[in-house]
Amino acid sequence: xxxxxQSPKYLFRKEGQNVTLSCEQNLNHDAMYxxxxxxxxxxxxxxxxxxxxxxxxxxxxxxxxxxREKKESFPLTVTSAQKNPTAFYLCASRDRLAxxxxxxxxxxxxxxx
Amino acid sequence: GQSLEQPSEVTAVEGAIVQINCTYQTSGFYGLSxxxxxxxxxxxxxxxxxxxxxxxxxxxxxxxxxxxxxxxLLLQELQMKDSASYFCxxxxxxxxxxxxxxxxGTLLAVQP
Lengths: 113, 112
Hints:
heterodimer, A: mainly beta, four-stranded antiparallel sheet, 11 strands, 0% helix, globular, B: mainly beta, six-stranded mixed sheet, five-stranded antiparallel sheet
């Protein structure tokens, strides 16, 4: 089945530690996105990528980094510079021709120890 | 800038009809989308309106009025499984880029 896979489902970060969230898609989509969702809130864009080897900052990129070395993969690193990382992180992808539909993974819930 | 406003919570009973409103302010407008998210789950696409009027998909319908910068999602014959958060979203296009701006979401509670 085609879809977006995020791992792990739950992740714990120690203070001062960098952690990486995985996002893989087999939908052959060009565009991929990372969102952060806080309790009772909407989705805020962290980073997005339109094509391989290219990505842009979203609205809340500080303390995060990404890479897009392969079309299928768009990992997000939460660095120690992100002082409030506890949130639900969602990865999404979009087909080049269906510009208004994004497909989401099941999310990673990150907590701080 | 761009912003979308939705009510934070709506409560309705099983079998009823409920309307979730969304007003938006955008520098350019390319359509209004709706997404459903169950607690702790992934948002899923429900509908998209590019032009004024009503789009119907089964029990769900979505309406857009571009002159009023307003849209709504209409859910009919409510079922318990419809309890979820509903987000309106508008695309923000700049050159070759495309990203979605999401509203803060409306939590729908369906009661028996």
